[in-house]
Write a structure and sequence with these properties.
The protein contains 7 helices and 5 strands. With 186 residues, it is α+β, with helices and mostly antiparallel strands. Helix 1 crosses helix 3.
Length: 186
């Protein structure tokens, strides 16, 4: 998961405080025997088992049970959290994986698509395209993206599938975070 999206899900902001950032360790990793497809009419990917493919992503340490709960809510019932074996990347290669230098193998958890292959496009999901063209609606961009956010909201067609910065899932997470903050304040 893109770190800014992770921060928004866990902390309610894509730009958390230095203290919050220090709670997590995010390292590049690779998941073998899986591939990543774009979900039809959505911005986000689906990871599915595939014996001859690999998915580059991140290995995150320091997540609390509350963070994992928020991630479970964010991913929804289209995904199932599963234990997998990943390899840390000591050196990140290009987008095709050329030049990757793999390191230690570790057990991790990832969200695997369970909503059916008929909901997936044939090609690989393009992370670079997501970062360039779509990430702002996931992290709560302001300014030039306000019109896009409002148009998406008004049309009722949400390419984030309810996971974007202005979605009902985000509202639910915000309410839960505020309730949790009040509990710890008492």
């Amino acid at each position: 998961m893109e770190p800014q999206v992770l921060y928004r899900v866990c902390y309610g902001s894509s730009t958390p405080s230095s203290f919050q950032k220090s709670l997590l360790s995010i390292r590049p990793a690779i998941l073998h025997a899986h591939c990543r497809h774009r979900v039809l009419d959505r911005d986000y990917p689906a990871i599915i088992p595939s014996p001859h493919d690999s998915v580059r992503g991140t290995y995150v340490q320091g997540l609390t049970s509350g963070d994992i709960f928020r991630l479970d809510v964010f991913e929804g019932d289209e995904y199932e959290r599963r234990k997998v074996k990943i390899r840390l990347l000591n050196v990140e290669g290009n987008e095709n994986g050329e030049g990757n230098v793999e390191g230690k193998e570790l057990e991790a958890a990832t969200y695997v698509w369970v909503a059916g292959k008929e909901e997936l496009e044939d090609g690989e999901w393009d992370f670079g395209e997501f970062q360039r063209e779509k990430m702002q609606r996931w992290i709560g961009g302001r300014g030039e993206y306000d019109e896009v956010d409002e148009a998406v909201k008004a049309r009722g067609e949400d390419p984030t599938g309810g996971r974007g910065a202005y979605s009902s899932n985000t509202d639910k997470l915000q309410i839960e975070q505020e309730a949790e903050a009040w509990k710890s304040a008492i």
